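Kindly review this protein for my students:
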Amino acid sequence: MTAEWRPAIDPQTLRERAALVWQIREFFHNRQVIEVHTPILGSHTVSDVHVESIRANGGFLQTSPEYFMKRLLAAGAPSCYQIGPVFRKGEIGKRHNPEFAMLEWYRLGYDAEQLRCETSELVNLVLGECSYQTISFQSLMRERFHVDVFHESNDSLSDIATEHGYQGGFGEQEILDFLYSEAIRQCDAERVFVVNFPQESAALSRTVSVDGLEVADRFELIVTGVEIANGYYELLDGGELARRIEMDNRKRVELARPPIEPDPRLLAAMKHGLPSCAGVAVGLDRLIALALGRDNIREVMTFPDGLA
């Protein structure tokens, strides 16, 4: 029997996708943000316990261009963006594919609020004008579940999650991730920036004190219940980054996952000096699918999983 050879995308959608990508490139060109290209295969990868990398040729297919782009910035590069493929193991579904397109950019001298503004301008360009709501992680969870997640016991949060169908492990972060997914899925507003996440989810963002709580100075943009963007006011302290990687690896061992060796080149770049900046990653296939009224990202991809 002849193998299926045709792409998942139809010719008209291919043209529409190309036009949207061109608009995005014009958006950055008009703001003097330069386009860069970094490797998709690297010697190191992220330690985030929620992301699994794909090993290849003794290295890793990159889950994001973040590490390479930060090395460029530390070496004196101006504000820059990249559009290209990234890879995450085991992520398959209507909104996921092991290989997908990511738009990521960094703005020198910006903080998270300034970058949220620019992100909304880009999304308005692609999806059309719309109002945005900004809500803290704490307030979102309180509205949805009537609980203060920063002060509630893990047992209580586990009970709430179980009531809503949770069947996973009993780690606090896993439970919070489930409750957060449920909250954004049922969010009434069309476009929502969620801010001030628990500091445990800071990853490579700075932390800041808000109302007596230490929170991650990062944001996510949710459009009609779908996470589109994840942005940080970027961490500049290489020593703190090394500490967070060590914490990630302890969690990985607890979950019977292989620890990840810290990237010495990234740490050296951080020690040399990453300029003050904010960065954001956008799931480009998701954004294009929303723009074109498609419910499944496979419909806007050329050769998704199963056809590649």
Q: What stands out?
A: The chain has a mean pLDDT of 94.
